Amino acid sequence: xxxxxxxxxxxxxxxxxxxxxxxxxxxxxxxxxxxxxxxxxxxxxxxxxxxx
Length: 52
Fold this sequence. Notes:
mainly alpha; 52 residues
């Protein structure tokens, strides 16, 4: 999940440099959503793991 967030962030940066505003904004939004899903999943995973 984090990998895809980084990929979309790079796509957003390259699109912004080349002047594609709509593509850049969409890719940045997708990257934010994926990063948020990753963070929520990591927190849930840390809270529910079994302790030995």
